[in-house]
Structure formats: C-alpha cells, structure tokens
Amino acid sequence: MSKECIQYLEDKQEQFLEELKEFLRIPSVSAQSAHNEDVKNAATWLANHCKSIGLKTRVIKTSGHPIVLAKTPRKGKSKKPHFMVYGHYDVQPPEPLNLWTSQPFEPRIEGDNLFARGSTDNKGQHFVHLKAVESYLKTGTELPCDITFLIEGEEEVGSESLAPALEKLKPELDVAAIVVSDNGMPDLKHPALTYGLRGVAACEITLTGPNRDLHSGIYGGAVDNPAMVLCQMLAQLRDADGRITVPGFYDDVSPLSKLERDQAKRFPHKDAKLARDLGVRELFGERNFNTVERRSARPTLEINGLTSGYQGEGSKTIIPSVASAKITCRLVPNQKPEKILRLLERHLKRLCPKSVKMSFEKGHSGRAYVTAPDGPFAGAALEALEEAFQYPPVLMREGGSIPIVTDFKRVLKADTLLLGLGLPDDNAHSPNEKMSLTAFRKGMKMSALLWEKLARAAK
Ligand code: BES
Ligand code: ZN
C-alpha cells in the first residue's frame, strides 16, 4: 500500500463521513414492507456510489431486495488473486422510537461516535472497505488483487434471495476468500479475527382459543385463556439451570475443545461490568459454562416477541382469542436448523392442552459457521489488524449469525475472514445504534493494508 493511499484516507475523513451520513439517511428497513421503496433507493444510492469511486457496478434484481455487485476494474484476463467483500445495506427496524436520543435516520456525530440505525450494522462497516479500495483507485495505486463487493439487502431477514442468486453468480465469484466486517471486537485495544458464528432457526407459535375476545367476567373460569396457556408452555422450555428442555436439543452439539475453553478464559471480559452496562442485577446462563462460552459456543432458545390481548392504554377485561410468540434458537456447529425446529414443534405440541389450537410456522434459518483460524489468509488478516490498531488481535467465536457465510463455503468453496469493527456498546439492533469513528478510521487502514497481505498469501 502506498503512502498516497494512507494520505488519501486521512485527508478525506470529513468527506467520507458526509457520504456515509447520506447513506444512513435512507431508512432501508428490510423487515417492513412499507420501506420497500427505501430499500431499493439504498441499493441505487450504493450502486451509484460504487460507480463514482471507479468500480464496475451492477444492481441485480431478485424476487426480494436487489443485490449490488461492484468490481475493481480488470485488464483483460486478470491473473491477480480475487477476493470478495460481503456486506448488507438493509437495516433493522428502528423501533421503539421513543428510546432514541436523536432520530434513527438523521445521523448525528457526538464525540467519537456516529449515531444512526445501520451505522455499525452494517452500512458503516462495509463502507470502510469501499473507502480503502477507493484510496487505491483514486490515487492511481495498483491494487494487488481483484476485489468484488457483494452487498445485499435482505441480511436482516435471512438472505433468502441471495442464497439462490449465489449459484448463478458463481462463475464470476471465483474468489480465494471472503472478507466480512459485520460483527464485533471486544474493544479498540482488542482487534479481532472471528472464526465462528452461531446458526439460527426461527419460528412462530400461535395459540387460538375462543373465536373472539370474550368478557373475562362472563366467561372467565370456564374457558381457557390462550395467553395463559402460551406462558405456561413457554415457561417449560427452559429449566432452572438455563438448559433448554426440548428433548434432543443438545444431541448434535459439538463440545468445546480444551484449547477453545482456555482461549475463552483469556478473553477480555468481566461479568460484573457486563451486568452493569446492560442494567441487570446479575447475568444468567447455562450452568457450567462461562459468559464467553454461553454467548458464542452454546445453543440457546429465546422468545423474541409475545403478542396477545389488549395492549393499549388503561385496562380491558377480556380473555384474548389469540396469543403468539416469535422464537429463535441460536445454533452451534453440527446442529441442523430443520431438525431443531422439528424437535421444538413436536415438544410444543405435546405441551399444548386440548383447550386451545396450536399452529407452528417455520421461519428463516442457517447453520453455524466455524473455520480453523490458522491458514495464510488468517495470518494476513491478523497482521493487518495489528498494524492498523496497534494491538495484538484476539481470535474469537461470536454469537450472532450471518447465515450466508455457510452458503459461501458450500457454493464458492471459500472461507470467510470475519473482521468485525463493531464495539459492544454500539447498540446493534437496539435504540441509539452507533459506530465508533476510531473503529471507522482504523478499519479503513486495516482494509487498505489487508489487500496486499492477502494477495501475498495467495501466491
Ligand atoms: N451483524 C449481524 C450479525 C452479527 C452480529 C454477527 C454480532 C456476529 C456478532 C447481522 O446483521 C445480524 O443481525 N444477523 C442476524 C441474522 C438473522 C436474521 C438470520 C442475527 O444474527 O440475528
Ligand atoms: Zn443485524
């Protein structure tokens, strides 16, 4: 990487932030159909931006939200190694809005942070790589490798269009490895290479009782209450030791190696600090595992949403007709999402009394991802992290999911280097999401350094 690239990245900070703010103003919420047009606009904005920095760009239509594919210019049949950067321009819903200090889609810089929905997850993080590549293109510095950016618009809802599109795009995605910054690092003094992610399996259970909401005085005591039944059923899914009670749930779980358990112990983490940061009196999790393991290498079952009855102002004396729960399980290597959902459905059916009718709907899913962090590409990534952040990087597994990464491995036969730039207090998926400007700045440097190191490692 030339001095010009570094200088370019330093000189243009202000401009980059203005551009990123423009991107963040587009409310590309993929989960809400009212935002479909905004999601499309974000794809168009991104494609135009990629073109403006010198990438050969196209927008690929899908049955859902479009995919932006942008490539560094190539001369004839390129002999350079080829890498891919993956990211997503869709964002999580911003609700509940009243908990935001400023509007989610009106980006605001305060101190070292840029606040906006999508700042860390994931517009800001893939923007870092775009800017690093821009520094080569705009200073006339020859790139040591070919790079393809693949940025999708459905990551937050399960990447359902990208998985099939990947098969079609395969011939032009002959990449040696994939780089993803859509995750985290423990803090700015611990840059990280993540070598594992959890999988996920989503579902929704609905219980229906009487054919309409009933007066709870007239009927209460004689007709079952679906909200009460739902609570009783869900309460049985976990025991006092924090173990999920669905029979077979743990059958396929790969145990942690001694090496991994030792690594997890060395990780910069304090239970008391985490509890304080999150505003809970104490942490809770599966017995016999520490917090680091519980958050990354153990499977879980969580209720994500509960809906039933009257939720407006004041009280309303009814027996609700319907109650439902959205549930997701986080999965670890070797667990199969389809099997887990089958086991869960069977178990819930057994727990469900005759007084209500149960329906079970499967949602999106994806397997866990783990790779050995010891190849030449991992070595290159660790070097780039250390040079840019000036601290030795840590190796870790994370609890979040990016299911498409397992499709990359299956279809493109390439491993993914997860170089997260998010910090624990970035509030991904929560109100007041932000990205650290230091992570943004050092991330760009890391990315600029990375391409040379990866290209060297490919030879
Ligand atoms: N950026 C996250 C994934 C992530 C977060 C990985 C933190 C590692 C650490 C991504 O945008 C995300 O939220 N993914 C979803 C996937 C789901 C909808 C299939 C998730 O993990 O909930
Ligand atoms: Zn996310």
List keywords for this structure.
459 residues; alpha+beta; Aminopeptidase; Alpha-Beta Plaits; 2 domains; six-stranded mixed sheet; four-stranded antiparallel sheet; 18 strands; 35% helix; globular; binds ligand BES; binds zinc ion
Describe the structure.
It is a single chain. With 459 residues, this protein is α+β, with helices and mostly antiparallel strands. The chain folds into 2 domains: 3-197 and 368-458, Zn peptidases (Aminopeptidase), CATH 3.40.630.10; 199-253 and 299-365, Alpha-Beta Plaits (2-Layer Sandwich), CATH 3.30.70. 35% of the residues lie in helices and 21% in strands. It contains 13 helices and 18 strands. Strands 1-2-6-3-7-17 form a 6-stranded mixed sheet, sandwiched between helices. Strand 4 and strand 5 form a beta hairpin. The mean pLDDT is 96. Bound molecules: ligand BES and zinc ion. Ligand BES is lined by residues 121-122, 155-156, 158, 182-184, 197, 200, 364, 366, 398, 400-403.
Count of strand segments: 18
Helix content bin: 25-40%
Q: What is the CATH third-level topology name of the largest domain?
A: Aminopeptidase
The number of distinct helices, counting runs of at least 4 residues, comes to 13
Runs in which pLDDT lies below 50 for 5 or more consecutive residues are: none
Q: Strand portion, in percent?
A: 15-25%
Strand order of the largest sheet: 1-2-6-3-7-17
Q: Decide which structural class fits the backbone.
A: alpha+beta
Which molecules are bound in this entry?
Answer: ligand BES, zinc ion
* Number of structurally distinct domains: 2
Oligomer: single chain
**Outline:** globular
Euclidean distance between termini CA atoms: 17 Å
The Rg value, from CA coordinates, equals: 23 Å
Largest sheet entry: 6 strands, mixed
The CATH architecture of the largest domain: 3-Layer(aba) Sandwich
At the fourth CATH level, what is the homologous superfamily of the largest domain? Zn peptidases
- CATH class identity of the largest domain: Alpha Beta
Report mean pLDDT, rounded to a whole number: 96
